[in-house]
Structure formats: structure tokens, C-alpha cells
Write a structure and sequence with these properties.
Layout lengths: L5 E13 L2 E5 H13 L2 E8 L8 E3 L3 H6 E6 L5 H18 L5 E5 L7 H11 L5 E4 L3 H8 L4 H24 L2 E5 H8 L6 E4 L12 H12 L4 E6 L8 H13 L4 E6 L5 H10 L6 E5 L4 H10 L2 E4 L8 H8 L4 E4 L2 H6 L6 E4 L4 H13 L1 H15 L4 H12 L3
Parallel strand pairs: 1-3, 1-6, 3-5, 6-7, 7-8, 8-9, 10-11, 10-13, 11-12, 13-14, 14-15
Antiparallel strand pairs: 1-2, 2-4
Helix pairs in contact: 1-16, 3-4, 8-15, 9-14, 12-15
């Protein structure tokens, strides 16, 4: 099969057994359709799951996926005992699969239960070139999750140095590194011989905000109407939901007229709703929960004046790109990822990490200068034209084919 343009892709993506075979979530399916356009055959390894999920599951036995894609489910290995039990069989699978593919790509994570890392070690043993794909900076995320438990914090601090050392070893041995977003690129680029900043998005050119809708939104902004503020994402600590509320509280106290919506589920959602009521924001801040209809979510972004975000860890959140595509400026905590998204055309306003007061001041200044906010909306739409699924996947496929 190395005579063909074949791809072996090992990931952490969950899959499940459905009535017609293995299923994957709809966004992964969109990505795999793209890989099937750029490769003759794709073998995709993910993690079998049986638990509840809000994912929209997709069959893979029809169309281009049925023709070119083969799915393989790996066991859960998150935990030393589970990983050790499954490791021999998983290694045998990779030992057989790697020689059958011309191109190899592994999405590296945290080592423990990290089957892509195991695949990279096998590729190194076989002296094969491969591309390493990293989509976020794990150490701050792990520390954030362990923040409430001294024992978990200690375990994280003991585990992270050797784990990150092993991940950087796999990066140094890679032929090409696909580092998603500016934060990930800044953190890992020096460990890779050929690093590239990449992006992940599933919007298409025909989903971008049209000129008429853009003009209507800008006219409404200039008229002085209440600001429409949005955030789509999980209500979890790394997203900074309570700092998001603090920012809105400061705006409310400054008599800024607005309506705000947090769209998404997550473990902090009940407490977030309660806190909004306690702060007297219940009538102007809403939490509709998970929204799985993509067209509805994009329409909400197109109607919003700004996406307000308080991300506390360096991550490459897809919602920031989707906002730009929808002509919705991104206003939030500064880091390399959002800064890089708007570096060419603008469309963002950023303030220091962990400072809701400064963020509220930035929004207040935009409220007071509606012409500046209208211009920021136009710049966001221009930046959004840089990011379409076809463009970003063609770029990553070209990089994968170097390995």
C-alpha cells in the first residue's frame, strides 16, 4: 500500500459501535471527508467509547468515507493499569499497520493512555518518517483540572516533566510538526525540526457572513442598540466562565446596555446559572445549553456584535475562528492564538490574562465608540475569509505528504 498515497492517522477521537458499524462525531467526519479527498486511502484509529455523549454521531459506511476510509477502535487506556493491559495488543496493531501506509500522522497528547504516542515510538523503531500533530498545550490544562485537589496537583507536577519530555522526544523525531494555533506553536516549535502553525475549522466559503447581513449588523451597532454578546463553548474551568460573568457584571454596573448568551453545556453550567441570578444578571444573560445544529450556531454568531472569551489555558478554540467567519469580533484574554488569527486583517481586541476589569473596560470603550466597533466587525469578517475547511485541510494535507 506504500505505492499508493495512503494515510495512517492515529488520534484521541472517540468513536462508538452503531447499527451500521463504527460511528464518529459529525465534525470528525467532515475532517475525514477532506482527508479522503487528498489521500487514496485513510486508516483512522480512535478510542472506542460506550458512555453518554452530546456528539452528533455519523455512519461511515457510505459515500467517500465508505469508499476510502477504514476505522479502527482502540481501547481506553487512560490510567496505568488500563494502558499496560492493552499495550501489547495495540503495539502489535501499529507494528502491522505502519509498513502498509506511505504517510503517517499521530496526534500527540499526554503519553499516559496516549496511543498516538505509542504509534510514534513504533514508527521510530521502524525508522519511518511521520508527522506529529498537537492541537493544544496540555500542561496548563492538566494543572487547571487539578487545581481543586492538593493531591492531584502534586501528582500533576510529578508527572508533567517526564511526560512532556517524552512528547518533545516524539516531536524531535518527527519529519513535520503540525502545531495548531499560535499558542501551541510557541510552546512546541523549538522541539520540532520542521514546525508549522496550522488551524482546524469546518466552515465553508458559503457559510461566511454576506455583505448585506454585515451591513445590517454594522448599522444596528452604530444606532446605539444594546450590545449582543455571545460565547459558544463548554462551561468548564479552562474556559473561564465565572470571569466571563465578572466581566458582564462590571459592564452592567457601568450601565452598558447588553444581552449576553453562553451556548453550551458543561460541569459548571448549573453553578454559572445560579451565579448569574445572584449577580442580578438573570434577565440579560441566558444559558440555553448545548446547541448541536450547526446552522443555528452560525446564525447566532452572525447576529452577535462580539464574542467575549476568558480562556484561562492556551488552547486553539475553534469558536474564535467561527466567530470571525461570521463577522463577529473576538474580544478576550490575550495570547498568541487569537492574536495570530487577526494578525493580517484585524477583528479582535485583547486584554491581559485573568483581568475581568480590563476586559470590561475594553468592551466599554467599544460601546462608547460604536464607529470603532462597526469597523472591528468589518475587519473580523475580512479575517474570517482566510479560514475555510477546504483551505486549512489542503494546507495540512500538503504538510502530511512531506512525511
Amino acid at each position: 500500500m506504500q505505492d499508493l498515497n495512503t494515510l495512517l492517522l492515529v488520534t484521541h477521537v472517540h468513536m462508538r459501535l452503531g447499527p451500521n458499524g463504527l460511528q464518529i462525531d459529525d465534525q470528525t467526519a467532515a475532517g475525514l471527508r477532506q482527508w479522503c479527498r487528498h489521500f487514496d486511502r485513510v486508516s483512522f484509529y480512535g478510542i472506542l467509547t460506550q458512555g453518554p455523549s452530546t456528539s452528533a454521531w455519523v455512519d461511515t459506511n457510505e459515500g467517500i468515507l465508505g469508499q476510502k476510509l477504514r476505522l479502527f477502535g482502540l481501547p481506553q487506556g487512560y490510567g496505568p493499569a488500563a494502558m499496560l493491559r492493552a499495550l501489547p495488543a495495540v503495539r502489535r496493531q501499529f507494528r502491522s499497520a505502519i509498513p502498509q501506509h506511505r504517510h503517517l500522522c499521530f496526534t500527540l497528547g499526554t503519553v499516559l493512555g496516549d496511543w498516538p504516542f505509542v504509534a510514534a515510538l513504533e514508527a521510530i523503531r521502524q525508522k519511518r518518517r511521520y508527522s506529529a500533530w498537537i492541537d493544544r498545550v496540555e500542561p496548563p490544562i492538566i494543572r487547571s483540572r487539578a487545581a481543586g485537589s492538593p493531591l492531584k496537583r502534586l501528582a500533576a507536577e510529578l508527572w508533567l516533566p517526564p511526560a512532556q519530555g517524552l512528547i518533545r522526544h516524539a516531536l524531535r523525531q518527527s519529519a513535520v510538526a503540525l502545531l495548531q494555533g499560535g499558542d501551541t506553536f510557541e510552546y512546541y516549535a523549538r522541539s520540532a525540526p520542521d514546525p508549522h502553525c496550522t488551524y482546524d475549522i469546518h466552515t465553508h466559503a458559503d457559510e461566511q457572513i454576506d455583505a448585506g447581513s454585515l451591513a445590517v449588523k454594522q448599522a444596528r451597532i452604530v444606532s446605539g442598540a444594546p450590545l449582543e454578546i455571545i460565547y459558544p463553548g463548554r462551561a468548564t474551568a479552562m474556559k473561564g466562565p465565572f470571569e466571563w460573568l465578572k466581566t458582564l457584571q462590571a459592564l452592567h454596573r457601568a450601565d452598558v446596555p447588553f444581552r449576553a448568551t453562553w451556548i453550551g453545556d458543561g460541569p459548571d453550567l448549573p453553578a454559572l446559572r445560579d451565579r448569574a441570578e445572584q449577580l442580578g444578571l438573570g434577565s440579560i444573560v441566558t444559558f440555553p445549553g448545548f446547541e448541536g445544529r450547526r446552522d443555528v450556531l452560525l446564525d447566532r454568531l452572525k447576529a452577535a456584535d462580539l464574542l467575549l472569551f476568558c480562556h484561562k489555558t492556551p488552547e486553539s478554540a475553534r469558536c474564535l475562528i467561527e466567530a470571525l467567519v461570521c463577522g463577529c469580533p473576538i474580544v478576550g484574554y490575550d495570547s498568541a492564538y487569537p492574536r495570530g488569527l487577526v494578525a493580517q486583517h484585524g477583528g479582535g481586541r485583547f486584554t491581559p490574562q485573568g483581568d475581568p476589569k480590563a476586559l470590561a473596560q475594553a468592551v466599554l470603550s467599544l460601546h462608547r465608540d460604536r464607529a470603532a466597533l462597526s469597523a472591528l466587525v468589518g475587519a473580523a469578517a475580512q479575517s474570517g475569509r482566510l479560514y475555510t475547511e477546504d483551505a486549512v485541510y489542503a494546507h495540512r494535507a500538503e504538510l502530511m505528504q512531506r512525511a
